[in-house]
Amino acid sequence: MKIAVIAKTRLPIAEPFRGGLEAFTHALCKEYISLGHEVILYAHADSNPALNIKGFYGDEYREQYHFEIYENDEYLSILKDIEQNDFDLVHNNSTHELPVIWGAKASIPVVTTIHTPPISKLKAAIKICSHSPNLHFAFPSNNFKATWQPYLDSDSMVIYNGVDLAQWPLMRTRRDYLLWFGRIVHAKGLDIVMDAANELKMPLKFAGPLDDRKYFDEQIQPRMQETDTYLGHLTQTEIQLQMKGAAAAVSAVRWEEPFGLTNIEAMSSGVPVAGFDRGAFAELVNADSGVIAEQRNVKYLAKAITAAIPLESDKVRRQAERFSLKTMATNYINYFETLI
After folding, report:
1. Which of 200, 206, 222, 284 qualifies as a FRET site for 3, CA 20 to 30 Å off?
2. What CA–CA distance (Å, rounded) separates 259 from 323?
3. Which domains are seen in the chain, by residue range?
4. Contact indicator for 236, 15 with CB cutoff of 8 Å
5. What is the pLDDT of residues 258-303, one digit of tens each?
6. SS (H, E, C) the chain
């Protein structure tokens, strides 16, 4: 199968990943290729060349005030190039509205995996165009699909995200500290995690890109205790090493997260998770792998962490095996074959 994959082009699809969408796109394309399919990934020009990248803009325009104009031109260039090549199917993983609008009149199936909540331009494009026969949609969780259902006039699939289980082996051998990793922004709730760790008097290690410096300076740095450590923006291999001594990985997101790859990465490493019942979290964990806080506050998050720490690593890992990269990619390919 010859597949055109459209990425969100603002950030490179390369390590260290800025977020889950970049990690998802990288892993999925790698798996498509390993399964024997021909892939062209339309992405930021600085993305991993092993994924057969076709990039139109690098960084030259991305910091400009009018970048949205350049971004529109970039997606128009991508769609024109797709039209000039003989693809069997387009797998759209961007959060931009133009691939959806274009797909309404495409001559081949266009499958959009939706990774972002209903936002104005994308929501409008999907509401107007989703009845088109060659437009199809996939969601990473049932919870997230429900948030989009009012704007869809077509069938859609739930295909859970997955991680490379070989790349995230069982690592946990100690219970020395709590662990958090992700983009450091208000929506991810690192400040809540820090308050829970402080209440339990447990060391916290955290990692991720400083996407909101003001939030870090005003909410994170003042909360740091002597036992807390900011590890910086790590590669996946560097994060794995931190799993060895992690008592639990903690999530306290303030939004309805579509999936939450970091939870599966921790669980695959044998690290139990504790978090709020938001987004897909309750779909990912069971009694052997994590604990859901009864209420969304520091007190109940601390109780959930305490209950998660004793969970056995091998049982945590077995739950993560339900969400393998191979299963995810195979489910997508099977779906594509029915559409073709």
Report:
1. 284
2. 11
3. 2-162+324-339 (3.40.50.2000), 177-322 (3.40.50.2000)
4. yes
5. 999 999 999 999 999 999 999 999 999 999 999 999 999 999 999 9
6. CEEEEECCCCCCCCCCCCCHHHHHHHHHHHHHHHCCCEEEEECCCCCCHHHCEECCCCCCCCCCCCHHHHHHHHHHHHHHHHHCCCCCEEEECCCCCHHHHHHCCCCCCEEEECCCCCCHHHHHHHHHHCCCCCEEEEECCHHHHHHHHHHCCCCEEECCCCECCCCCCCCCCCCCEEEEECCCCHHHCHHHHHHHHHHHCCCEEEECCCCCHHHHHHHHHHHCCCCCEECCCCCHHHHHHHHHHEEEEEECCCCCCCCCHHHHHHHHCCCCEEECCCCCHHHHCCCCCEEECCCCCHHHHHHHHHHHCCCCHHHHHHHHHHHEHHHHHHHHHHHHHHHC
Tokens of 259: 């999936």
